[in-house]
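[09:14] KT: can someone run the structure on this one? pasting the chain below
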Amino acid sequence: MEVPHTASVKPCHRCKATGYLICSSCSGRGSKRCGGCNGRGRKRRRVKRKNGWRTVTRTCGGCHGTGKRRCHRCSGTGRVVCGTCEGTTQVKWFIQLTITCSKGLSDYFIMLCMYSRKNNLGHHIVEKTDLPDELIKDVAGTLGFQDTQPRVLPIAMFPEPEINQASHRLVNEHSKFPNCRILMQRHVIRMVPVTQCDYQHKETTLNYFVYGLDCKVHAPTYPDQCCWGCTIL
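[09:31] RB: done, structure tokens below
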């Protein structure tokens, strides 16, 4: 994408502001050697006469005896329109910003147990980027799994193995309260989208993160921290 306020118009460097280039097919001559007669202007062929076969020479019909044919690429002018400026003799210069994004999902695993005396909440976050885990907990995501029962079973078939391991661990931890009666247990898995954007600023590779359904931004290494810097939308 074009960085705003960096554009300027300059003479075309490729055609030197002429709008044309020398035709590479004919090297600017406007004509090429006839392929039918190999540039000789005449063609030889064998014909059958009454007294046998004879070799006769005739004028080449392709080049009419000149040995040359008009270049089809430049229509005989010896030059073609410059492809960089498209014949306008000027080009637009600007700074182009290239953004490479890697997008994935962060799974936020929650287990809530309600006891006769208190509630006990445990959680586990599976996140593959450098985004701090505490930012995932408070943003909007999609519900991937939910189970509410007096005693829930550990998850065993979730596509992410770490979720299955965390489920077994949390279920075991919530079973270590012999003096409390469990009223209800709940398994919840929320999936939060996270996009990591890598960019270069003054030959330094930096990144920022867009996460959650409400597209919150985490940019701890943003180069310009002043009030007049760029705003990430």
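[09:33] KT: thanks! The chain has one helix and 14 strands.
[09:34] RB: yep, looked fine to me
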